[in-house]
Design brief:
CATH class of the largest domain: Alpha Beta
Order of helices and strands: HEEEEHEEHHHHHEEHEHEEHHEEHEEEEH
CATH topology of the largest domain: Beta-lactamase
Largest sheet: 8 strands, antiparallel
Number of helices: 13
Structural class: alpha+beta
Strand order of the largest sheet: 3-2-1-16-15-14-13-12
Shape: globular
């Protein structure tokens, strides 16, 4: 990946873009981040590419353009694209119950009251549908939320930041189906393992394992040669967490094993490793309406549907979602089929454009696509969790204040 156009030619002010470097260099200099890479494109050309700090502090290895990063939940848009490719082939309708392909979800039950050890449940009043998985409205959850008795049940079953050793995606999906839903399908929004279940749905519908589908149907056609479920350790940036005592980034090798080698299960919700160059190609494919360099995977109408707010009544996440962690703010943002969607910049208190769609990953990676300005931005680092610092909010301001035409 390299700079392809001068900022001024892309309607960006180079002096103002330099504020990005100064701002985030402080994060490295005071020890909050190990290192980072930022890329901004306009009208399909890379206008700003900058990196600073180390991909591995202890080994003294700098961040480079081809550094491999755990992108965690930035895997979710890839899985959503895979599902929508099958949708375009007529394999299913978005309103179809997933139990037609995943019979373990034939009779879901919903938590009503009680503890995680003695929950009281009731039958779901409607089936989990495909669009529920795509929009995180299925009633599934994450163990790491620590906000509901069902979250505790996920943790007790071995699902907090990963899955029990030895379980493949099919086995994980069967385990999740045994646990109660947090709410009736379609009634609320809750960040969850829904995209992992969607990945299993892709496997059953396509007849391929998720890694094979991604490789053959998405990565190879788009030229994403360095994106996969896991990579060799020497290719991968080290993973860090914030030390609560010092505020500095501290290496966490046990958690850093995520992304090293071939995993037991292919997490469509958070299992991919990628590079800035590869994910740049993915964002450009979406910005260009499902096509890149003559290869079309989705129609423009499908991408537009995915980047539309699907929350009932066109409300935002603040009105429809549970006030828990997600990779984006809730005020002013809706949710589409795999992405957050900015519906009200004023309510969101952001310089970004209405219609921007985006997501991020647990290690503080992030991307967004602004169709109105033909602009994309990406940020890569390796600090868990992504809620540690307001990196994404600051990056948006710094990018958009540099946009002058």
């Amino acid at each position: 990946m390299k700079t392809e156009v001068e900022p001024a030619e892309a309607g960006l002010d180079a002096g103002r873009l330099a504020r990005i470097d100064r701002h985030f260099a402080r994060y490295v200099d005071d020890g909050r981040l190990p290192g980072w890479l930022v890329a901004v494109t306009r009208r399909g050309k890379v206008a700003y590419l900058s990196s600073y700090g180390q991909r591995d502090i202890e080994a003294g290895l700098p961040v480079e353009a081809d550094t491999h990063w755990r992108i965690f939940s930035m895997s979710k848009p890839v899985t959503s694209v895979a599902a929508m490719m099958l949708y375009e082939e007529g394999a299913f309708d978005l309103t179809d119950p997933i139990s037609r392909w995943l019979p373990e979800f034939a009779r879901p039950r919903v938590y009503v009251k009680g503890s995680s050890l003695s929950p009281v449940t009731e039958p779901a009043t409607e089936p989990i549908r495909v669009w529920h998985l795509l929009t995180h409205t299925a009633g599934l959850t994450y163990g790491f939320h620590h906000a509901h008795p069902v979250d505790a049940m996920y943790r007790a079953a071995g699902f907090e930041w990963g899955a029990p050793a030895g379980l493949d995606l099919a086995a994980c999906t069967e385990k999740w189906a045994e646990l109660p839903l947090v709410f009736q399908p379609g009634s609320e929004w809750n960040y969850s393992v829904a995209t992992d279940v969607l990945g299993r749905f892709v496997e059953v519908v396509s007849g391929q394992s998720l890694d094979e589908f991604f490789e053959q149907r998405i990565f190879t056609p788009l030229g994403m040669d360095d994106t996969s479920f896991g990579t060799a350790e020497e290719n991968l940036a080290a993973l860090y967490v914030r030390d609560p005592a010092t505020g500095k980034a501290v290496r966490n090798d046990p958690f850093g094993r995520v992304g090293v080698g071939r995993p037991d299960y292919f997490s469509g919700g958070g299992g991919l490793v990628s590079t800035a160059g590869d994910y740049h190609r993915f964002t450009q494919f979406l910005l260009h309406g499902g096509e890149l360099d003559g290869t079309r995977l989705l129609s423009p109408r499908t991408v537009a549907l995915m980047a539309s707010n699907h929350l009932p009544g066109d409300v935002d996440l603040e009105a429809y979602g549970r006030p828990l962690f997600a990779e984006m703010p809730f005020d002013g943002y809706g949710f589409g089929l795999g992405f957050s969607v900015l519906r009200d910049p004023v309510k969101a208190k952001t310089l970004a454009s209405q219609g921007e769609f985006a997501w991020g990953g647990a290690a503080s990676t992030a991307f967004w696509i602004d169709p109105a300005e033909e602009l994309t931005a990406m940020f890569f680092t390796q600090l868990v969790p992504s809620s540690t610092y307001p990196i994404r909010q600051h990056l948006r301001t710094l990018v958009y204040q540099s946009l002058i035409s």
